[in-house]
Amino acid sequence: MKSDVCFSKKTGQPLTVYFSEADAKSSALYERTARGSDLYPYKCEKCGYWHLAPLSSKLNVQRNACSCLDSNGRHKALYLTIEDAEKQRMKSEAEQHISLKVYSCSEGKGFHLTHCM
């Protein structure tokens, strides 16, 4: 695994790390039962471990759902709704200070993001 430490963008505090999806799911269930928090587990692309995030922030995104590739030859993220693509565009622009645009998948399966030139 990578050694990067992940921090909450909201609080600046380090995120709790889970070493397996099962552990993260168990913790999400505990948080819902004990505190009423609706969280979901996700595998972090930065550190390779699992974290929890608010369910309200979850986007309907798929990987390997079409044959569209990014400039590094990896499958592009496919957003099933334009609303999810726009939500991710705004989030990425705010966090990474980049300019993106939403466009339709050439296979008609949803929407992708690309850098504005």
Describe this structure in words.
With 117 residues, the protein is of the alpha+beta class. It is built from 2 helices and 6 strands; from the N terminus they run αββββαββ. The chain has a two-stranded antiparallel sheet with strand order 1-2. β1 and β2 form a beta hairpin. The N and C termini lie far apart (34 Å).
Main sheet summary: 2 strands, antiparallel
State which percent range the strand residues make up: 15-25%
Structural class: alpha+beta
Backbone shape = globular
Helical percentage: 25-40%
Strand elements, count: 6
How many individual domains?
A: 2
Helical segment tally?
2
* Average pLDDT level: 90
Per-chain topology:
Blueprint lengths: L20 H15 L3 E5 L6 E5 L6 E2 L15 E2 L2 H15 L3 E5 L6 E5 L2
Antiparallel strand pairs: 1-2, 3-4, 5-6
Short précis:
By secondary structure, the chain is an alpha+beta fold. 26% of the residues lie in helices and 21% in strands. The strands form three sheets. Strands 1-2 form a two-stranded antiparallel ribbon. A two-stranded antiparallel ribbon has the order 3-4. Strands 5-6 form a two-stranded antiparallel ribbon.
Please give a handful of descriptors for the protein shown.
alpha+beta; 117 residues; two-stranded antiparallel sheet; 2 domains; 2 helices
